[in-house]
Amino acid sequence: KVNERVLSLTQDKTQRARAYTINGLAQMDKTDWVGANKNFDSAIQEDPTYAEALFQKGIAFLNRKLYLESEKFLLRALDAGSDRVLTILSLFEVAKQIEEKTPDSKFERISRIDKMIQDYLIEHTEFKAEMLIARIAIARLAKNNSTIESLSHEFIDMNPLTIQKEKSRGFSQYQRISWSNVYSWCLSSYT
After folding, report:
1. Are 109 and 95 in contact (CB under 8 A)?
2. Which residue from 137, 75, 59, 48 is spatially nearest to 100, judged by alpha carbons?
3. What residues contact residue 57 under an 8 Å CB cut-off, 6+ apart?
4. Which long-range contacts (CB under 8 A, 24 or more apart) does 78-83 make?
5. pLDDT 10s digit of each residue in the chain, 191 long?
C-alpha cells in the first residue's frame, strides 16, 4: 500500500483520510474498483467531509457507469468544498448519461447543473470558456436553440487569448467535446 507508513504514524483524521484517498487513487490507476472503493470508504470514515475522497469515489462510480451512485458522491463532494469546476463538470457528465438513458427525460438534472454553472460564473471568470462549453452542450441536449445562440455569441465574443489560455492549460476536463466542435457549434448558430 502506498501510504501504510503514514497511516501507522498519525492519528490526525484528515491526514489519514488523505492517505487512504491516495491509496484509492493508486487502486483506480490499476482499475481495481473494489480496492479503490474500500480505500475511499476508509477515507470517508476517517473524515466524512474530506472532499477529495468523496469526489474520487464519485469519479470511480462514473468510470464504472454507476451514474446514480456517482451523482450522490459528487454532490456530497460539492457540499464538502471540492473543486467546483471539476465537480460541476463531472456532475454534468453524470446527468447527461442519466438523462440520455431516460426516455421521457425532462432534463431536470441537466437544468440543475446549468443553474450551478450560472451561479459559479457570477463570481468566477477564470474558467468561463470551459463552463460556456458545458452550457452550450446542455442547451444542445435540451434542444434550446435560443440559448445555444446566445451562449455561442458569448463564447465567440470572448477574448481569444483567454480561450487559448484555458485550452493550453489542458484544463478541459469535459473532454467528450473537442474545442473544434465547440467552435463549429458556435459558428453554426450564426447562420
Report:
1. yes
2. 137
3. 24, 37, 40, 41, 44, 73
4. 80/49, 80/50, 80/51, 80/54, 81/49, 81/51, 82/51, 82/52, 82/54, 82/55, 83/55
5. 546 666 666 778 888 899 899 999 999 999 999 999 999 999 999 999 999 999 999 999 999 999 999 999 999 999 998 888 888 888 988 988 888 887 666 778 888 888 988 888 888 777 777 788 888 888 887 788 888 888 888 887 876 666 666 555 544 444 444 555 666 656 665 44
CB atoms near residue 107 (< 10 Å): 18
- Spatial contact of 189 and 167, defined as CB atoms under 8 Å apart: no
Q: What is the CA radius of gyration of the chain?
A: 19
Contacts of 60 (CB under 8 A, 6+ apart): 24, 28, 33, 36, 37, 40
C-alpha cell at 157: 465574443
